[in-house]
Design a protein that fits this description.
The protein is an alpha/beta fold. It has twelve helices and nine strands. The strands form three sheets. It has a five-stranded antiparallel sheet with strand order 5-6-7-2-8, covered by helices on one side. It has a two-stranded parallel sheet with strand order 1-9. The two termini are 35 Å apart. Bound molecules: flavin-adenine dinucleotide. Flavin-adenine dinucleotide binds next to strand 8, helix 7 and helix 8.
Length: 334
């Protein structure tokens, strides 16, 4: 959707079409619900023990023994953008500022400005122009140096709104619209956008501001420690794939590890895992960079983008995502 005119630029079918095409649902899930699902799976697994509220200060075998009483054959650093495991591996634990900022807001279920209804609770009247966002769709509104994604928070949960702005310079603390007041910052960023969108954002609850950081270099393993998820490759949310890549990493690492505690077979297995995952993550990262270029375009680039989108069918646009959404991790049945 064009953020200024509210004109629909393109549609990519989801729902049954996604299941048919990619053999998987195209789904959005609130962070807390995903974390609970993962935590339940950990609790249910006989080989897992969960230590909550336990900070790893140093990613060394000694500190792990201090917590678990067991000598680790491998330390898996899934500890995000300020990873202590990356610090131990590469000598730097901080991710890089990207010059992009995300602001998050939430539109309660009964707020005006919502059309449609959640797929679990009713039919989808579509994007009909009476309100800027449809509660049954993922909507991306595009504009100069900014875009907005609106997506459902589940039955009765309203809509999550993420506004992402680019071109703020590397230092997140010196942002031009770095005002702590989310409404003010978003209103400045989206000046010139359609009044329906601006009025709806004014009514939304604010959740905060995130200067976005990335991790693009460094080793992923040293034979005794390995990084996965954001600790290894935090990326911009332009392809909305950071958590998806973290989950793929975890599944593929579990599949790659030797079944026995054989240290001689561990390093080659980690090498193969890293080589495979780096290629996949690099491709996703490039797609994110392309999305940023296309989403935030202005002037002739925007006109070119709109023309290309208008010439492509929804099926052709879906086909662009086959490599991403249709991906099967090694080890999964075809
Ligand atoms: C605005 C925004 C929108 C996004 N949208 C999407 C999206 O639509 N789709 C998507 O797939 N991804 C999205 N992402 C990316 C996604 O949030 C991350 O890629 C994902 O959370 C990474 O998961 P992770 O487990 O690697 O790290 P995290 O989620 O950061 O988890 C790390 C965990 O390690 C713990 N930890 C850290 N340090 C220590 C320590 N020293 N000791 C003990 N525990 C520690 C933390 O408490 C945390 O629980 C988005 C990100 C942002 C900022």
């Amino acid at each position: 959707v064009d953020g200024r005119s509210l004109r629909t630029l393109a549609r990519v079918p989801a729902g049954a079409a996604a299941r048919e095409r990619w053999k998987a649902p195209y789904a959005v899930i609130p962070r807390a619900a995903l974390q609970l699902t993962l935590a339940d799976a950990v609790r249910a697994h006989p080989a897992c023990r969960l230590h909550l509220d336990t900070e790893i200060r140093e990613a060394t075998p000694l500190s792990i023994i201090g917590i678990t009483g067991l000598h680790p054959l491998l330390i898996i650093g899934a500890d995000g953008i300020r990873s202590k495991v990356r610090l131990a591996l590469n000598g730097h634990g901080q991710a890089q500022q990207s010059g992009n900022v995300a602001w998050r807001l939430r539109l309660p279920p009964h707020a005006s400005g919502l059309t449609g209804s959640h797929p679990l609770s009713g039919p989808n009247p579509g994007f009909d122009g009476s309100g800027p966002f449809d509660a049954s769709l993922v909507t991306a509104c595009l504009g100069r140096k900014a875009h907005l994604i609106a997506y459902p928070l589940g039955a009765g949960g309203g809509l999550n709104l993420v506004v992402v702005g680019s071109g703020f310079g590397q230092d997140g603390s010196t942002l031009q619209t770095g005002d702590r007041d989310v409404h003010k910052a978003v209103s400045t960023l989206l000046a010139g956008w359609h009044p329906h969108i601006r009025a709806t954002l004014d009514r939304a609850e604010t959740l905060g501001r995130w200067p976005l950081v990335e991790v693009a270099d460094g080793a992923w393993h040293d034979g005794t420690r390995i990084l996965i998820g954001d600790a290894a490759h935090a990326m911009m949310p332009f392809a909305a794939q950071g958590a998806a890549m973290a989950i793929e990493d975890a599944y593929e690492l579990a599949d790659a590890l030797p079944a026995t505690e054989d240290a001689a077979r561990l390093v080659p297995a980690l090498d193969r895992f890293v080589m495979h995952r780096k290629a996949r993550v690099a491709r996703v990262r490039s797609r994110g960079a392309f999305n940023r270029f296309a989403y935030h375009a202005s002037g002739p680039v925007r006109l070119g983008r709109d023309l290309v989108l208008s010439l492509r069918t929804p099926e052709a646009l879906s086909g662009d995502f086959d490599w991403l959404y249709g991906y099967r991790s090694p080890g999964l049945p075809a």
